[in-house]
Specification:
Number of domains: 3
CATH superfamily of the largest domain: P-loop containing nucleotide triphosphate hydrolases
Oligomer: single chain
Number of strands: 8
Number of helices: 20
Length: about 450
Amino acid sequence: MAIFEGLSEKLSAIIKNLRNSGRITENDVKNISREIRLALLSADVNYKIVKDFVSVISEKALNKEVLESLTPGQQVIKIVHEELISLLGSKNEKLIVSSNTPNKYMLCGLQGSGKTTACGKLGNMLKKQNKKVMFVACDVYRPAAIDQLIILGKQLDIPVYSEKNNNDVIEIAKNAIDQARKNMTEILIFDTAGRLHIDEEMMNEIQALQKTINPDETLLVVDAMTGQDAVNIAEGFSSKLHLSGIILTKLDGDTRGGAALSIKKIVNKPIKFASVGEKMSDLEPFHPDRMASRILGMGDVLSLIEKAQQNFDEKKAIELEKKMATSSFTLQDYLDQLEQFKDMGNMQDLLNMIPGGASLKDVKVDEKQISRTKAIIQSMTAKERKNPKLLDAKRRKRIAYGSGTTVTDVNRMLKSFEDMKIMMKKMTGMKGKKFKGLKMPF
């Protein structure tokens, strides 16, 4: 499921029509504003925010200099893009890092919002930055909450401070800080219990915890799929705690995106991270400008490059470039590429990061196809992988039998392999080019 899929589809269509417009009248601006308003409301964006957003766009678009410019359509697109960036928070807000270690990051939110998982993802991200991290289990109410954090800690090779027979979270937090200082730990991440913002007793507890540990960051973890409720929850926590930022979880499961587009404006706290998948690596710093481009179907090449840098082996990339230049790209190389693409995350979301990728919305990515492709290629001999021209009807039948697939599957995979070659060549010169008509090899 692609992030902002429904909203992106509607706004991309509006943008496409604007690009094709030679001249724009006041009546055109009114129609565009109405379409944008309907698109945002259907995405579950707060009504007041939609009203203000459309009002600003209409006012700026109706400027005489815009309407009488040589490219009025492009000017209006620029206005929409800039206002969307502003709505999402203008710039990426990094984690606060103080000189006094350990830096303390406290996560809070409703039960079921994904706090413990977010704790693991944040710890994983910081560990990859060569930080010495420790988790602190401060959820003493939910059954098995401490065990869940300990399991995550083992998976990530991050220590967990816990006291299973102690229900005093203040004492646990103090002891954890003492332990961190002894061990020269750089970052402490506190996983707190889920609580309703209207539960006075529980809110008093987390207020006391915040006052005791004086965290460098108090991050509210919000489930994006709760829509407008996410905004109400954020308002409730913001009225009781000094929040420094927000982590939006399950953003990949929300095709509308109303929470992301409403929460910053209403609570006036930056979205610092977005959780976009189930893997521990699926936590992204939130970049308003990049997200605005993705919503408008303009792609997000910078994030795509960053994902590639994290998941692709540099030496293999250099070798691959040489192979593409000499047309010696083999089926084994093809398999390696597919597996690395899979490691980068959801394939459908990766498509949307390519400029013009919105036009590929009808392409349905079958992630299971990678497993079938792997089975087919592994049923070939080394010579066949190197030279697919050897694959006559008899060999294809043998490969299908050996991989538990059909001859049709084998033929389809070989066609995809040729498509992959074409795509790789296009990507080497992707600047200023569109991927119109290109079939993805999945």
